[in-house]
Design brief:
Elements lengths: L12 E5 L5 E5 L1 H14 L23 H18 L7 E5 L6 H16 L3 E5 H10 L9 H10 L2 E5 L8 H16 L3 E6 L23 H5 L5 H5 L1 H10 E5 L5 H4 L10 H4 L5
Parallel strand pairs: 3-6, 3-7, 4-5, 5-6
Antiparallel strand pairs: 1-2
Amino acid sequence: MAEICSICEGSGLRIVRRPNGVQFAEDCTCRVERRVTRLLERAQIPRRYEHCTLDSFETKFAGAHRSLEIALLRARGFVNSFLLEKAEGRGLLITGKIGTGKTHLATGILQTLVAQLGAKGLFCDYRDLLKKIQNTYNNQVVETELDVLRPVFEADILVLDELGAAKPTDWVWDTVAHILNTRYNDRRTTIITTNYTNAASLAVGSSDALMPDAKLSEAKRARRQETLGDRIGERMLSRLQEMCLLIETDGEDFRQKVKRAHPPNTDDTWTNASEG
């Protein structure tokens, strides 16, 4: 049986008296907390990242790269601007190597805006989203493509994690363009993380520029480090640079360097530190 709130005695409202003696009712803290809990559940944040907040983002561990502290400051600045209605419709592109805290930052921003604004948030893994869309093409599946995309289009705050992780094809590029252009036109905020550098295709300006990126041989791709332009196409990269502020993280893989050096669950600092 749920415990009855001692403030409102289960009514969900509390009486507030102003200095001039006027009384009015407002939502009790218990009702606000329940509402935030429901919104966070609907955001579908994976259990691995449920603990990730901006307050728990670690920047002071041994060997931490300076960029992590700057990234946290910019993340907090973005949240503050959003709360002041100065960042409506603007997005974030968080780039960096594996394990430098990109997903942690994105989730922390999402949780803060959901809790403080009551915003409708959604966390999507890029590869999982594409698989769900592809699955709707199966005639035996009742769910339609629009059923999958509707919450993605309508979320006030969308986290699209690991953009570029799926093999680039014309279908992938068209699908990503459809999602991002729709949200851009509707002035909805999209927070993107990616392991790829925020740069144009390395094929541009070379003999490879004469052919579409999707046609580049696997051998040529293997000989060089791919960029975000390679993975999502030049047109979409240009759109991202227009709609998003950039946050860059750097350093060694936190999970490999730090967590392996400390036994699990012996110190909450390590449990709650940077992920992604």
